[in-house]
Design brief:
This protein is mainly alpha-helical. About 70% of the residues lie in helices and about 0% in strands. It is built from 5 helices and no strands.
Length: about 90
């Protein structure tokens, strides 16, 4: 079974009631119905193999902090502190 990410989802009462009825009509839990809806929308947007494409992307992606450092080095972008330092040196 694929690893799942837990998170909190806040819905207004009317939305939850509608999801609850829809889920019951299709013999699913509300959570299962939300997953079903999201998966259908993602298949429509990204194609039927979207889980494999995003799984590969997640596995090949370095941790966020390292990725940011690498991006700054590779592209030569300035950080805010670099910009402040260069603007402060020009004031003298």
């Amino acid at each position: 079974m694929p690893e799942k990410k837990n998170f909190v989802l806040r819905l207004n009462k009317a939305t939850y009631s509608a999801l609850e009825k829809w889920a019951a009509d299709e013999f699913r839990s509300v959570n299962g119905q939300i997953e079903f809806i999201l998966n259908a929308a993602l298949r429509e947007q990204f194609g039927k193999n979207y889980p494999d494409n995003f799984r590969r992307l997640a596995l090949s992606k370095p941790p966020a902090k390292e990725a940011e450092q690498g991006r700054q080095t590779q592209t030569g972008t300035e950080t805010r502190s670099d910009k402040e330092a260069s603007s402060n040196s020009g004031d003298k």
